[in-house]
Design goal:
elongated; 141 residues; mainly alpha; 6 helices; 65% helix; single chain
Length: 141
């Protein structure tokens, strides 16, 4: 799966930090695919500033909606320009934060940690299938 997201020249070893191999949107894409393949058993990554970015966008849109009539009445384009500049600044700050932040849980920093978590979860799931009498026919491939 990492071959789809990382060039072949980049070596990923078990001791490689996940955040060093993937950042920003690539990390989000990798993590969502990983969660999907492991049936949502992996903890979500936390992006605490997402709500702050959405609030900034909402304020910029409200400023733009107020700026349209004000710029028409006063014939001053500055009322339209200010929300556009603030929206652009908010977006750039969000992009910088998104690329440079580390949203991973503290216990999952390297690919080794991730592999151990997945192996442990799969072992637990296989053990549950083997001991549950309702799942008797499953896992006999």
């Amino acid at each position: 799966m990492s071959n789809l997201l990382v060039p072949a020249a980049c070596q990923i070893t078990p001791s490689t930090r996940i955040i060093d191999a993937f950042r920003g949107d690539t990390l989000d894409q990798y993590w969502s695919e990983l969660c999907w393949r492991n049936r949502q058993m992996i903890p979500d990554i936390s992006r605490k500033w997402d709500s702050l970015f959405l609030s900034g966008c909402l304020l910029a849109v409200l400023g733009f909606l107020l700026g349209i009539p004000l710029s028409i009445v006063t014939a001053n384009i500055l009322y339209l320009l200010t929300p556009c500049v603030s929206l652009y600044a908010c977006w750039k700050l969000y992009c910088l934060y998104h690329h440079h932040s580390d949203p991973l849980p503290p216990e999952l920093q390297t690919f080794r940690d991730l592999a151990l978590l997945i192996a442990g979860r799969n072992c637990d799931a296989e053990f549950a299938v083997q001991t549950d009498p309702q799942c008797e026919g499953e896992g006999l491939a």
